[in-house]
């Protein structure tokens, strides 16, 4: 089922209160997979600081941030960050989640599509990668949908929200592979 009443926005249009609301509302949903974002946004003050830091990172081209907004309720319903940018090797990482209430409606998929276009065509990256917990099958499906290749499993690479070490599945997509599927 798709959901069409939403749009992608940049960090300039995001208020700390609404970002905090998105994180707080999805605390249980993202607790195991987004522990750093959760820890850095577990109060309104921390959310303000986290957004301010994100604004600085974007100004310095160290990270880029996209948000999904429901155009009817104006609530934020998704988040995607482009991080771990290495301009020397021309690669970067995607991290993303959709509000628990709108999962399975194509929002994350469309945000990833938008981010891939941005990474390959604006940032001129050669590779985009996604590292996801072994148990996060929804994220793995997104990677495979966009023709990412599973490059390996990194053992005990990620500490989840419960403090447990988990294996990470590493997916990569090269610009040449992306261009093959774009036409």
Describe the structure.
This protein has helices at residues 16-25, 27-30, 35-39, 44-59, 107-122, 137-145, 175-181; strands spanning 6-10, 64-70, 76-86, 91-98, 127-133, 149-159, 165-174. A seven-stranded mixed β-sheet has the order 1-2-3-4-5-7-6, with helices on both faces. The protein is globular. The protein contains seven helices and seven strands. The protein is of the alpha+beta class. α1 packs across α4 (44-59). The longest helix is centred in the first third of the chain and has 16 residues, at 44-59. A hairpin with a 4-residue loop joins β3 (76-86) and β4.
Write the layout of secondary structure elements.
Blueprint: E1 6-10, H1 16-25, H2 27-30, H3 35-39, H4 44-59, E2 64-70, E3 76-86, E4 91-98, H5 107-122, E5 127-133, H6 137-145, E6 149-159, E7 165-174, H7 175-181
Parallel strand pairs: 4-5
Antiparallel strand pairs: 1-2, 2-3, 3-4, 5-7, 6-7
Helix pairs in contact: 1-4
Which properties best describe this structure?
37% helix; alpha+beta; 183 residues; globular; 7-stranded mixed beta sheet; 7 helices; 32% strand
Total count of helical runs of at least 4 residues: 7
Gyration radius (Cα, Å) is 16 Å
| Poorly predicted segments | none
Q: Which strand-content bin applies to the residues?
A: 25-35%
The major β-sheet equals: 7 strands, mixed
Principal-axis shape: globular
Q: What is the topology, as strand order, of the major beta sheet?
A: 1-2-3-4-5-7-6
Return the average pLDDT rounded to an integer: 94
**C-alpha end-to-end distance:** 25 Å
- Record field, number of beta strands: 7
Residue share in helices? 25-40%
- Class by alpha and beta content: alpha+beta
């Amino acid at each position: 089922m798709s959901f069409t009443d939403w749009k992608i926005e940049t960090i300039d249009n995001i208020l700390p209160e609404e970002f905090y609301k998105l994180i707080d509302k999805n605390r249980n949903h993202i607790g195991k997979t987004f522990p750093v974002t959760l820890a850095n946004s577990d109060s309104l003050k921390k959310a303000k600081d986290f957004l301010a830091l994100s604004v600085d990172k974007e100004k310095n081209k160290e990270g880029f941030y996209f948000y999904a907004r429901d155009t009817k309720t104006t609530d934020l319903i998704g988040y995607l960050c482009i991080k771990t940018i290495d301009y020397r090797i021309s690669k970067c990482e995607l991290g993303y989640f959709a509000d628990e209430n709108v999962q399975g409606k194509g929002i994350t998929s469309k945000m990833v599509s938008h981010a891939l276009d941005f990474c390959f065509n604006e940032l001129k990256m050669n590779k985009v990668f996604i590292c996801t917990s072994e148990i996060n099958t929804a994220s793995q499906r997104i990677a495979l949908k966009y023709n990412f290749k599973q490059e390996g499993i990194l053992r005990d690479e990620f500490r989840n929200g419960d403090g447990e070490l988990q294996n990470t599945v590493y997916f990569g997509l090269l610009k040449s592979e992306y261009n093959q599927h774009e036409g």
